[in-house]
Amino acid sequence: MRKSLIACSFALALAASAQAADVEWKMYGTASTNGGVVCFYEGKGVITRPALRVWAKCLLQKELDAVDFKSELGKKIVHSSAEKVIKGYIPPITLVEDADYDQAIAVIQYEETADLSNIQPHARIFYELNCSERMTRELSIYVRDLNGKEGFSKKPSDWQYAAPETNGARLLKILCPQ
After folding, report:
1. Taken in order 80, 82, 85, 86, is the CA torsion positive or negative?
2. Within a 10 A sphere around the Cβ of 24, how many other Cβ atoms?
3. Spacing of C-alpha 44 from chain mean position
4. Which residue from 46, 129, 148, 157 lies 20 to 30 Å from 54 (Cα-Cα)?
């Protein structure tokens, strides 16, 4: 009986780590909405054909900052972040926006928190990017407000030019070859 409990615990731990490895959230911007959100695109899930498409999620800044780094999850985030730094990982946003060493470390910790935590997204967006025209549109969008009310649209938005210094412009800079 005890061996089967240990085996089940081990299997669950492997499943949890495999699930975390299935996504690779990369920070691409912030917004002042609802006290601040940090937005990430899913780096492993970028679709290039028939068009450049990518999932994104925005997490509330206060929930990212509330992670207790003394908890098991917090220790795992710190450990994973440190491993990335040691291996020379450079967050994509730091390649298109100026960031010092401390800011890059904070970005890595946010990315690891997005990968490993169960923070519920404030928004989930499926973007389509037109690199040559520097335009974006949302193919689907889900938003949850601070009161827990949810909204969802599966109707693609109109194409929009990405204004300079916006999240859309940063996403285009990161994902579209020059």
Report:
1. negative
2. 16
3. 11
4. 148
Q: Can you read off the two tokens belonging to residue 159? A: 């194409």
Tokens 């290039």 label which residue?
48
11's enclosing H/E stretch is helix 2-21
- For position 71, what pLDDT does the model report? 94
CATH 3.30.450 at 24-175, yes or no: no
pLDDT tens digits, 26-54: 999 999 988 899 999 999 999 998 889 99
Q: Which amino acid is at 156?
A: P
How do residues 109-161 score in pLDDT, each as one tens digit?
A: 999 999 999 999 999 999 999 999 999 999 999 999 888 889 999 999 999 99
3-state SS, one letter per residue, for 92-147 = CHHHHCCCCHHHHHHHHHHHHHHHHCCCCCCEEEEEEEECCCCEEEEEEEEEECCC
Place of tokens 């085996």: 7
**How many CB atoms within 10 Å of residue 71?**
10
Q: Which of 47, 42, 30 is nearest to 128 (CA)?
A: 47
What predicted TM-score, i.e. pTM, was given to this entire model?
0.85
Q: Where are the domains of the chain?
A: 24-175
Question: How far apart (Å, rounded) are the C-alpha atoms in residues 178 and 171?
Answer: 13
